[in-house]
Design brief:
This protein is of the alpha+beta class. It has a single domain, classed as Gcn5-related N-acetyltransferase (GNAT) (Aminopeptidase, 3-Layer(aba) Sandwich), CATH 3.40.630.30. The protein is 30% helix and 33% strand. It is built from five helices and seven strands. It has a seven-stranded mixed beta sheet. The protein is globular and about 40 Å long. It starts with 9 loop residues before the first strand and ends with a strand. The mean pLDDT is 95. Bound molecules: coenzyme A. The site of coenzyme A has 20 residues, from helix 1, strand 4, helix 4 and helix 5.
Length: 158
């Protein structure tokens, strides 16, 4: 069982093809912390999956603590705009600094790729975290996996 113990160092590295199935399940477990119904989570499932082609078209990085995956991010850069497609932390490791470390990695990777703006279509319950990371609210966008559901959009100037 992975330990979310906060006093152990966090390491971040690119995800490997052989761990994408495990990381996809981590994303679902993480999304579930907000208490969504099974039907809602099932509708989100395709969007939460990480596939081998994602490693070629986006930056996918995993945060590890004590040898276990504790969170994952996915970032896509197009021109001067970067999109944070995923940022998910293992439920038992919430509020122990994993999200902040992964967000910093997303910002670093976006800047290195030449992006000037980071776009975040956030889960409503996570918007406070992104504001804490310096992003500012920029309205609402339609959720592309659950019809009729909207998400707060936040932006960070890089
Ligand atoms: C949002 C999420 C990534 C935050 O990760 P985390 O590892 O718990 O965050 P951290 O421990 O690094 O917290 C960093 C700071 O943000 C604050 N914070 C964390 N989650 C917060 C939230 N939901 N709302 C407001 N502030 C939050 C922390 O208190 C901490 O504040 P500090 O600067 O005073 O210390 C995590 O809650 C998560 O994975 N949630 C489920 C999946 C999800 O919704 N992901 C986002 C998809 S868009």
């Amino acid at each position: 069982m992975p330990s979310g113990k906060a006093d152990s160092p966090i390491t971040i590295r690119p995800a490997r093809p052989g761990e994408l199935a495990e990381l996809s399940i981590l994303c679902i477990r993480s999304k579930a912390v907000w208490g969504y119904s099974a039907d809602f989570l099932a509708a989100c499932r395709p969007k939460l999956a990480l596939r081998a082609e994602d490693l070629a078209t986006s930056h996918v990085a995993v945060a590890r603590r004590r040898g276990h995956a504790m969170g994952v991010l996915q970032l896509t850069v197009q021109g001067d705009s970067a999109t944070l497609g995923k940022l998910f932390v293992e439920p038992q490791a919430l509020r122990t600094g994993i999200g902040r470390a992964l967000f910093a990695e997303a910002v670093r990777a976006a800047r290195d790729a030449g992006a000037r703006t980071l776009v975040i279509d956030s889960d409503p319950a996570a918007a406070g975290f992104f504001r804490r990371m310096g992003a500012t609210a920029a309205g609402e966008v339609a959720c592309d996996c659950v019809p009729g559901h909207t998400l707060p959009q936040l932006l960070l100037a890089l």
